[in-house]
Amino acid sequence: MSRSIGSRIKSLFSSGKPAPAAAPPEDVRLGAEAGDAEAQNALGRWYADNTAETAVAGAWFMRAAEQGFVRAKHNLGVLALQAGQREPAAEWFLTAAKEGWTPSLAAIGAMFEGEGNLRGALKFFEMAAEQGHADAQDALGRLLLADDDPELYEAARAWSEKAADQGHSSAQTRLGTIYHEGLGVTRDPERSASWFLSAARQGHPGAQGMIGVALHLGIGIAADRVESAFWLSRSKAQGNEIGRVYLPEVEAELTAEDRRALEARLRQP
């Protein structure tokens, strides 16, 4: 399965090396300095995304938050969470959630999940999911399916479908698994392959591995050695175990012409 919402929350802002020194957009800076709350929030995001100056980012978020700008309150929660400050993070998320900011509901759910409080996680994920938040819908599908209770399979599928319809690759991969294994539904190889392929095209490594196997065996989709090797190669490159283990078997069957076609396919963006 894909990473949890907890990891998504932690990656809302760039966590790698700061980008080369550069100035923020002039219009954003001028707007922020003139007191525009939206510009102040945008300037905070620029510092959070492009530099290691989290204190500066926080200061701009705070100025926007003091004017009632709800996204800035959420962003202050994100900064606090990244710094390991749970209580301030929860306070900011709760404040933003009460003011109608749905991503904060999902963030609280992620915090509860990280602490092992699944009842609390499900409660807040469901509130966000009902408001159309795709990550929360995906999280509900993941948690309900992980419970391995056949009575929850239908709800797990329903929430996964809502997220998948919004293009969520993790949910699409889960639906591929649900139809592949017949979890609460009649096994449907074609529908399974369709979901795996949709997620694979978005770069999901597990889905790439599964569609690669399906293409090799011709299960739910027409067999194609080159396409199978292509998706398994993509999967392996992302560290997926299916790609690593299964690719050699497919490569052994490739003709010289197949290999040339595969090389050309792999050069495509």
Concise synopsis of the structure shown:
This protein is mainly α. It has 16 helices and no strands.
Topology of this protein?
Layout: H1 5-10, H2 26-33, H3 37-50, H4 54-65, H5 70-82, H6 86-98, H7 102-114, H8 118-130, H9 134-146, H10 153-164, H11 169-181, H12 189-201, H13 205-217, H14 225-237, H15 241-251, H16 256-267
Helix pairs in contact: 2-3, 3-4, 3-5, 4-5, 5-6, 6-7, 7-8, 8-9, 9-10, 10-11, 11-12, 12-13, 13-14, 13-15, 14-15, 14-16
Structure description:
With 269 residues, the chain is mainly alpha-helical. The protein folds into 2 domains: 1-131, Tetratricopeptide repeat domain (Serine Threonine Protein Phosphatase 5, Tetratricopeptide repeat, Alpha Horseshoe); 188-269, no CATH class. Helix content is 71%, strand content 0%. It has 16 helices and no strands. Helix 6 (86-98) runs antiparallel to helix 7 (102-114), helix 11 (169-181) packs antiparallel against helix 12 and helix 13 (205-217) runs antiparallel to helix 14. The radius of gyration is 22 Å and the shape is globular.
Quick one: biggest sheet?
Answer: none
**Net shape:** globular
- So how many helices? 16
What is the chain-wise order of helices and strands?
HHHHHHHHHHHHHHHH
- Assembly type of the shown chains? single chain
Q: What is the CATH fold-level name of the largest domain?
A: Serine Threonine Protein Phosphatase 5, Tetratricopeptide repeat
Uncertain ranges? 1-21
The name of the CATH superfamily of the largest domain reads Tetratricopeptide repeat domain
Can you tell me the CATH architecture of the largest domain? Alpha Horseshoe
Number of individual domains: 2
Provide the structure class.
mainly alpha
